Amino acid sequence: RIAYVNGRYRPVTDTAIGIEDRGFQFADGVYEVWSVRAGRFLDHEGHRARLERSLNELRIPLPVGFPALDVILHEIVRRNRIEDGLVYLQVTRGVARRDHPFPPGPVRPTLVVTARALDLKAADARAAQGVGVITRPDLRWKRCDIKTVNLLPNVLAKQAAREAGAHEAWLVDESGHVTEGSSTNAWILTGEGVLVTRQTDEKILWGVTRLAIKALAEQEGLRIEERAFTVEEALRAREAFITSATSFVTPVVSIDGRPVANGAPGSVSMRLRALYLEAAE
Ligand code: PDD
């Protein structure tokens, strides 16, 4: 596999970042993940725009222009011969002697891009079966709308899910409301047929897939409410699902071991998944 690191394309196993990189020492950096299908980026512009917003929020300059970034993204797909997969991009504030404030002088931010193939058949099989989620307290900071590499609470929640035999962990705030998954946005379809997903506040990442699915659902004439829901409401729902660049739309069939509806993937969830993947073609 080939990685892009600060202007060079190198084998992933033959690249290095300074040990005083602020991403390494302070999680002082942001990232973005694009899905690639049949060699094409899904929601390319949405992810690019969110990257720009994350960088602006943290005042990290992108070390290359956006047109050059586009070239790098396509080049990493080409050099890794990715048909179906994902592209990972990370920008940190760069390497400087360890000190909490931003470095005083000009420091070149570190830009890293990697890609890997994804097994679409396995992803489709997972969606057709549906996945289980567990619930965990949301231990994250108060600016989850910025896509930073500060992911330790997400890592711990996902690991707890794995150890419980579940696919994802839904994070629950102090008031008992689901914020989102550890790496996905959370949705339910109520008994009244209303799609519910949390409003884009600072407690969640503003998912690019979330926005695309919202638009598709509106086109389908579905009613949508952007508000928080509780775990109890999710357990009474007709359907539940998660969205992200890597899972598209994946039905949730159990929460903490209790079935959602009859415990099978919902038809609206599967229809939205199909529509999203069709739109990408
Ligand atoms: N995760 N919420 C969180 C906390 C996320 O990390 C992600 C994405 C999402 C979904 O956002 P989008 O639809 O833009 O992918 C929601 C990526 C895929 C990751 O960390 O690998």
From TrEMBL:
<dbReference type="InterPro" id="IPR043132">
    <property type="entry name" value="BCAT-like_C"/>
</dbReference>
<keyword id="KW-0100">Branched-chain amino acid biosynthesis</keyword>
<dbReference type="GO" id="GO:0052656">
    <property type="term" value="F:L-isoleucine-2-oxoglutarate transaminase activity"/>
</dbReference>
<dbReference type="GO" id="GO:0052655">
    <property type="term" value="F:L-valine-2-oxoglutarate transaminase activity"/>
</dbReference>
<comment type="similarity">
    <text>Belongs to the class-IV pyridoxal-phosphate-dependent aminotransferase family.</text>
</comment>
<protein>
    <recommendedName>
        <fullName>Probable branched-chain-amino-acid aminotransferase</fullName>
        <ecNumber>2.6.1.42</ecNumber>
    </recommendedName>
</protein>
<dbReference type="GO" id="GO:0052654">
    <property type="term" value="F:L-leucine-2-oxoglutarate transaminase activity"/>
</dbReference>
<keyword id="KW-0663">Pyridoxal phosphate</keyword>
<keyword id="KW-0808">Transferase</keyword>
<comment type="function">
    <text>Acts on leucine, isoleucine and valine.</text>
</comment>
<dbReference type="GO" id="GO:0005829">
    <property type="term" value="C:cytosol"/>
</dbReference>
<dbReference type="InterPro" id="IPR043131">
    <property type="entry name" value="BCAT-like_N"/>
</dbReference>
<comment type="pathway">
    <text>Amino-acid biosynthesis; L-valine biosynthesis; L-valine from pyruvate: step 4/4.</text>
</comment>
<dbReference type="InterPro" id="IPR050571">
    <property type="entry name" value="Class-IV_PLP-Dep_Aminotrnsfr"/>
</dbReference>
<keyword id="KW-0028">Amino-acid biosynthesis</keyword>
<dbReference type="GO" id="GO:0009082">
    <property type="term" value="P:branched-chain amino acid biosynthetic process"/>
</dbReference>
<dbReference type="Pfam" id="PF01063">
    <property type="entry name" value="Aminotran_4"/>
</dbReference>
<comment type="pathway">
    <text>Amino-acid biosynthesis; L-leucine biosynthesis; L-leucine from 3-methyl-2-oxobutanoate: step 4/4.</text>
</comment>
<dbReference type="InterPro" id="IPR036038">
    <property type="entry name" value="Aminotransferase-like"/>
</dbReference>
<dbReference type="GO" id="GO:0008652">
    <property type="term" value="P:amino acid biosynthetic process"/>
</dbReference>
<keyword id="KW-0032">Aminotransferase</keyword>
<dbReference type="InterPro" id="IPR001544">
    <property type="entry name" value="Aminotrans_IV"/>
</dbReference>
